[in-house]
Amino acid sequence: MPLLLGCIADDFTGATDLANTLVKGGMTAVQVIGVPTGPLPEADAVIIALKSRTAPVGEAVAQSLAACEALLAAGAKQIFWKYCSTFDSTDQGNIGPVADALLKRLGSGFALACPAFPTNGRTIYLGHLFVGNALLNESGMENHPLTPMTDANLVRVLGRQTDGAVGLVPFTSVEQGAAATRQAMMRLAEQGRRYAIVDAVTDQHLLAIGEAAAQHALITGGSGVAMGLPENFRRAGLLPARGDAASLPPMQGMAAVVAGSCSRATLGQIGLARDHVPVLELDALATPDAAALTAQALDWVEGKLAADRPVVIAASAPPEKVAALQAKLGRDAAGALIETAMAAIAEGLVARGVGRLVVAGGETSGAVVQRLGVTALRIGPEIDPGVPWTFAEPRGLHLALKSGNFGARDFFLKAFDHG
Ligand code: ADP
């Protein structure tokens, strides 16, 4: 199975989101964690997940180029540079500088830039990015601690991050479909523009943009604009019709959830689980020690593991308890304590026969994946929007990594109805 689409993502959950979109479009997809050191796994699409969103520019560029090299060596026909649907970046980068470096490496002079994701309320009209009903710079993103977005005009925002010229493919062209969009992009390229911000308000627009970019060496954007790409490869006869792109090896072993997310959705999911399955809520304020918390959890789990329903182990707590632990230890130390404990608990659970594990929390997921030595995630069926089951290599374990606010209230129960 030759590699078709090679993707570079600037963060972990963004990579999963993109992989999930491609699988839903009928491509097999594997997410690789960090710049790969060995051969790439077999799949129609490989998504290399970096942590480069807020890294120093030089580091982000170097990592992205190394990832690109690995993808090209594996035969990738097209490269996709994935960033956040709210265009998270600063005037220094990293979206523009990485795109510049990738274009240069690919010997190309033009790429589109489209972070739109209408399903999640991210739309672009006349180059302005909206989050729900609000302009980007009035959406709360203007207060982001690392990448404050104070300008909604993406032509200007990207323009500050590159020495190339940035143009716009307006709604009126995209609305006419793929051919008109392709022509509008070609005109901009002929006029010497290096980038085109492309308007998109609906999924139909994203599909048209994807089709229009079939011949582009590099596509840049959010996961939404990848919706149209599987069809390009099918049309070119490169991608067979796959009914089974999301199929994973059969699930085995015991079921468990570890939660280190204190987001509202996760707290609700734990609340519902309490009425149905064994739930342990750790009290880090009473026991501010990772090894002791781990021992408590692994003692408690004794005799409770089952294959047909999960046990839930949660450090999650409401805001006032989180604030109390942070006041006692400091914010970073409190987070690190819980992340260390949850990762050690996950490892202990796997050693006790857990083969299907849900992890709640983005940072918590990062800690667990690192502790388990996972290098790649094969993407399987979606449990709830944006959260697929995955098969973790080389552990041979089913993992679902849920970013805090994702998933319906019954997520922790529903996840184990799959498979
Ligand atoms: P989310 O995806 O909801 O943001 P994360 O795992 O990314 O979840 O972040 C949650 C952070 O809160 C982690 O650093 C975790 O260690 C920390 N945390 C979890 N439980 C507590 C708690 N009871 N007190 C303080 N911090 C906590």
Short description:
The protein is α/β, with parallel strands linked by helices and 419 residues long. The protein has helices at residues 12-24, 57-73, 95-106, 154-159, 171-175, 178-190, 203-212, 229-235, 264-274, 290-301, 319-329, 331-351, 362-371, 411-414; strands at residues 5-9, 29-33, 45-49, 78-82, 111-114, 122-125, 128-131, 134-135, 165-169, 193-198, 218-221, 254-259, 279-281, 311-314, 354-360, 376-384, 387-393, 397-402.
Write a concise keyword list for the protein shown above.
419 residues, alpha/beta, Rossmann fold, Molybdenum Cofactor Biosythetic Enzyme, Chain A, 15-stranded mixed beta sheet, 3-stranded antiparallel beta sheet, 14 helices, 18 strands, globular, binds adenosine-5'-diphosphate
Explain what this protein looks like in three dimensions.
Helices cover about 35% and strands about 20% of the residues. Strand 7 and strand 8 form a beta hairpin. By secondary structure, it is of the alpha/beta class. It has 2 domains: about 230 residues, Putative sugar-binding, N-terminal domain (Rossmann fold); about 160 residues, Molybdenum Cofactor Biosythetic Enzyme, Chain A. The strands form 2 sheets. A 15-stranded mixed beta sheet has the order 9-10-5-11-4-1-3-2-16-17-18-15-12-14-13, sandwiched between helices. The chain has a 3-stranded antiparallel beta sheet with strand order 6-7-8, with no helix packed on it. The longest helix has 21 residues. The chain has 14 helices and 18 strands. Bound molecules: adenosine-5'-diphosphate (ADP). The site of adenosine-5'-diphosphate has 23 residues, from helix 11, helix 12 and helix 13.
